Amino acid sequence: MRRLPDDGVIELESFDDARPGLKGHPEMGISWSRSGPLACAALFPNGMVGIDIEQIADRDTAAILGMVALPQEAELINAIDENVAHLWAFYRLWTAKEAILKCRGEGLRGGAKSVEIPAEYLIGDADNLVVHERVGDLCLMRLDAGLEACCSIAFSVQKQI
């Protein structure tokens, strides 16, 4: 096991076109997100990680869904009539897609429509599942951020030997 510096100094490396890292520790996956006054970070040894948090705000989701959702995702979310449930499904979609895209090392420029989020995650029937991605199997998990925010994390599935 490799240790972080004893002097307590950790240097973050952040690039516009690549996933961030810890200087001198390429094996460590790192990701962070903020939304308004909220922030979260994830550190994952020997793997990839992506995290996203969004404050829940009442908004017209139609235009954004048209840009980021696959047709079946948009149809599922638009079929939810109750406003609070509709917003939660929308934010679960948004944070899950962004977490996976960050995990890939692409961020939103990787194309939100290149990621498919399972229906059971969107509607809240599953808060933890494995998705098969082009970078390998990822665990997609909703983290409890209270009633005013939605947070999703995606990380490499560790294979046990």
- Could you estimate the helical fraction of the residues in percent? 25-40%
Radius of gyration: 16 Å
Mean pLDDT: 88
Quickly count the helices.
4
Give me the count of strands.
Answer: 8
Judged by helices, strands and strand pairing, the structural class is alpha+beta
Give your account of this protein's structure.
The chain starts with 11 loop residues before the first strand and ends in a 5-residue tail after the last strand. The protein is globular and about 55 Å long. A hairpin with a 2-residue loop joins strand 6 and strand 7. The strands form 3 sheets. A 4-stranded antiparallel β-sheet has the order 5-8-7-6, covered by helices on one side. Strands 1-2 form a two-stranded antiparallel sheet. The chain is built from 4 helices and 8 strands. The longest helix is centred in the middle third of the chain and has 22 residues, at 83-104. It has 161 residues and is of the alpha+beta class. 25% of the residues lie in helices and 34% in strands. The model has no long low-confidence stretch (mean pLDDT 88).
What is the gist of this entry?
The chain has 161 residues and is an alpha+beta fold. It has helices spanning 62-68, 71-78, 83-104, 119-122; strands spanning 12-15, 18-22, 28-35, 38-45, 49-55, 128-133, 136-143, 149-156.
What's the SSE blueprint?
Blueprint: E1 12-15, E2 18-22, E3 28-35, E4 38-45, E5 49-55, H1 62-68, H2 71-78, H3 83-104, H4 119-122, E6 128-133, E7 136-143, E8 149-156
Antiparallel strand pairs: 1-2, 3-4, 5-8, 6-7, 7-8
